[in-house]
Structure formats: C-alpha cells, structure tokens
Design brief:
3 helices, 9-stranded antiparallel beta sheet, mainly beta, single chain, about 40% strand, 8-stranded mixed beta sheet, about 10% helix
Length: about 300
C-alpha cells in the first residue's frame, strides 16, 4: 500500500511538472561548462557510486577541455572497474537518478556526441589510463542507456534497458577477445509485456574510429504506442524512425506499471584484460527538438 501511495503521489507531482514544462523546456543540461564532470549527479569509476577517483586503480573518468574541438568526458573501463554487479563485466558510469520526464506520458529529445578513439588520438590527447577503444565480441559494449527502474518485478520478467546504444560485432563471444567482424553502432529498443517483451535491434553503419558521431534521439515513453527516432550525423532525417513502438514495460497487477527509466552514460563491456576508452561530448535532454539543438 505504501508503494502504491508513493507511485500515486509521484504521478500527481509529475502532472504538476508537466504544467510547468510546456514549450521549449530543457530538462537536463550536461554541457560540461563547469570545466569538470561535476554536472553529472553520480559518477562511478568502478568502485561504487561517487567513491574514489582517478588514482584509485579501477576505472577512469576524465574531463577534457578540448578534444577534437569540444568539451569531453572520457570514460575508461579497466579489468578491475566494476560499477555494475553483473558478473563477468567491467564498467564505469556517469548517471542521473530518476527524473519526472523519464516515464509516461513524457516525450523527450536528447542530443549528444560520442567518439571511439584510436591509438593515434590517445597518443595526442589521452590522459592517464586512457586507451584505444577495443570492443569485446558480441553485443555487450553499451555506451548510452535509458535503463528500466529497479522496482520489484515478477519472476517471469525479462526486462533489460528500454533504450540502449551499443557497439555490436558479429564475432562469436570469446572471453577477452577483441571484436573485429562487422563492428557497428547499434540501438536496442525494448518494451511491452515484461514477461514477453517486444525487442527491436537497429544496426548502424560500420564503426569509424576517431569520428565524432552526432546523435539526436526522440523518445515518447509509452508501453504500447511510444516513439523511438534516432538521428545519426544528420539531424534533418532520422536514421531510424518508429512512431508506434513500446518503450516501457507493462507489469502485472500489484507491480509498478508501466516501468520508468534512468539515464546512464557508460563504458560497459564483457570482462576483458585491457583498458578501453569512449569519449562523450556535452549532453542535453529537452521537451522539443529546438530546445536541445539550441542548448549549446
């Protein structure tokens, strides 16, 4: 009863927030203008949330004032960085707690950029611990995730992140190996019945190292009739568009339904015996396309 009351209270508060955020509203701005990574609410270098730093021997989260022309967060995963409790994985995170715009009925836009550095970029611009991006085999190289919440869920649930961006390869999964076969960015969208979810994979173009990928997302949170649009290096036309797709999970009676999400920027891979770096530029979330395109 307490849980249901809390959810009802949150929904009511969200209704108030909706009335205050009409028009071109910016919900979240991580433009890195503070000259560090302090704008992100939580930082996990592989030791636990907001614990340790870049000299503690796990992962690395570095600020770059100008890397190939922009302010940048460098996320470096190592064999001993374990931000996630998932077995056989390494990870570092920049992440935000739950926000009112992370679930139904909100419609949001997100803009950011990502680079996968080669040895040449690391040689010219890398900081301590940073290393060329080396994807693991298969589909476990996540870098931008709207993760489903951690509310109690039924035993049959097959819930993973609702919106996930990944570097995917066609290599058979081999522990510690570097993926080389058909390496590309990919998007996975999940939603609907949490015990039998709808899963859509969208393959991007072959991966380019040392290239700033400009990304724009358009998401409507809905367990039945959501929206998922992905713009990649061309904000005039979507690389992928689906205007009626589940983007949240529906749970049985007695559980919080539909689910909601939290935003994580990550370097999250299968366990491997080497360091690997991803660079992410400024990030903004807003209520409209124009609100994020004009944010920085």
């Amino acid at each position: 009863m307490l849980l249901l009351f809390s959810v009802a209270t949150e929904i009511a508060c969200n209704g108030l927030n909706a009335s205050k955020t009409s028009g071109n509203s910016v919900f979240l701005n991580r433009d890195l203008s503070t000259g560090d990574l302090s704008q992100w609410t939580h930082r996990d270098l592989g030791l636990g949330t907001d614990v340790g730093g870049n000299t503690n021997g796990a992962g690395y989260l570095w600020y770059h004032s100008s890397l190939a022309g922009r302010r940048t967060a460098g996320l470096t995963v190592t064999p001993t960085a374990h931000a996630s409790p998932a077995t056989n994985s390494d990870s570092v995170f920049l992440w935000e707690p739950r926000q009112f715009w992370n679930h139904q009925p909100y419609e949001i836009w997100l803009r950011t950029s990502v680079m996968f550095p080669s040895a040449a970029t690391i040689s010219s611009s890398g900081l301590s611990g940073e290393a060329p991006f080396a994807p693991t085999t298969g589909e476990w190289n996540w870098f931008l995730v709207f993760h489903n919440d951690s509310s109690p869920m039924p035993g049959c649930a097959k819930e993973y992140a609702n919106i996930s961006f990944d570097v995917k390869t066609d290599d058979p999964v081999v522990s510690g190996a570097i993926g080389t076969n058909n390496v590309r960015i990919a998007l996975r969208i999940m939603g609907g019945n949490d015990c039998s979810p709808n899963i859509v994979w969208v393959n991007g173009p072959p991966l380019q190292w040392d290239h700033w990928y400009e990304m724009l997302l358009h998401i409507k949170w809905d367990p039945k009739r959501g929206i998922a649009e992905w713009y990649l290096d061309n904000f005039s036309a979507p690389y992928y568009s689906n205007l009626k797709i589940p983007t949240l999970f529906t749970r049985p009676r007695g559980y919080v339904s539909p689910s909601y999400t939290t935003l994580t920027i990550s370097n999250y891979r299968l366990h491997a015996p080497r360091n690997s770096t991803i660079y992410v530029g400024p990030l903004v979330v807003g209520s409209t396309r124009s609100s994020v395109l004009n944010a920085f």
